[in-house]
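Final paragraph of the annual report: two paired records, presented back to back.
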Amino acid sequence: MTPVRSGLAAAAIFFLIASALSGVLPLWLDEILQLRETRNTSTAEMLATVPRNSGAVPLGYLVQQAVLKITGYSARWARLPAMLFGSAAVFLVALLAAELGFTRPWLSAAVFAAFPVTLRYATEARVYSQALFFSVLATLIYASQDDLDQRCGPLTGSSCWRRSLRSRTPSSSALRT
């Protein structure tokens, strides 16, 4: 199975699990505070009030507001962006594992999906899964640079990050088989 197919399969399974669990827990305080801003305000009003919420970033609010305008309000719909970004992060982990030379990238995606924090982030109406997605995306972009090994040298430290992931970590060589 190709890395894309196996990654999509892992992401789809993760999405189904996150979707099933998203309605189990009630909304918690931070989710309610975010929903108060995204649910009944205009975009301009929302962007003006976002800085008042500690740790708030506009992207999460904008995405959630757009989803709620399209779907209407419910706790499950409010958590949909988190489920989508969490599933996309699982997919990107499979692509990252393939880029790093793992023979079973779906296994890396499955292990990543099994982390409790990954599932928790995907079932909360907050921006954490978006941050996780963009972190994995940045890592994938960095790891897929073809000229990375040519830029490694004695002045860049003991080794470049990609080279050390490919050859020096015990978990990398164990999972590649």
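The closing record of the year follows.
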Amino acid sequence: MRKLGEIMDIEFVEGNQDLLDWISPLWAKLNSYHRRKSRHFAAYYDRMTFQQRKAILLAKAQNGLMRVDLVRLKDEDDYIGYIVTTISAANEGEIESLFVIEPYRKQGIGHALMQRAINWLDRHRVKVRRLVVAVGNDKALDFYEQFGFYPKYYSLEQAEQKFVLGGEGAIDSENVAEQF
């Protein structure tokens, strides 16, 4: 079987948080995708900047570890994909972000990035591994199942309030259980 690098003339660049700035243009495309797909949190994605996301990732890496893998076409400066993986101080791993630009999807690049991240987690003997898939990105679920990731629970977050508490249509929190 031919390796991905033999099929496409690509190379992987691996490192730590020092490489985060290199993912910025790709992350912006991912964030834009989530904004378009989100029914309830488009404003959240609209406000989120790369610098804010980077600060969140760096905070996680402060007491743990971070790995950044980038993919680029050889002989070109632009990256076509990335994955960011962290290990917390409690030795729990998380696939923080994965993205491959459209023309290069379904060619094994995302699969190779995931495998690199999982191998890194294996080397660090991480037992608990997780990732978050944004609502609206349902196509990603089948992809992640190939690696043994399945929904464990649903996490709900209140969107920006579109109603006035106590106004018409408001929920009486004392009787909410009776309503369901």
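The beta strands are 10-15, 65-73, 79-87, 92-100, 128-131. This concludes the annual technical report; the extension proposal builds directly on these records.
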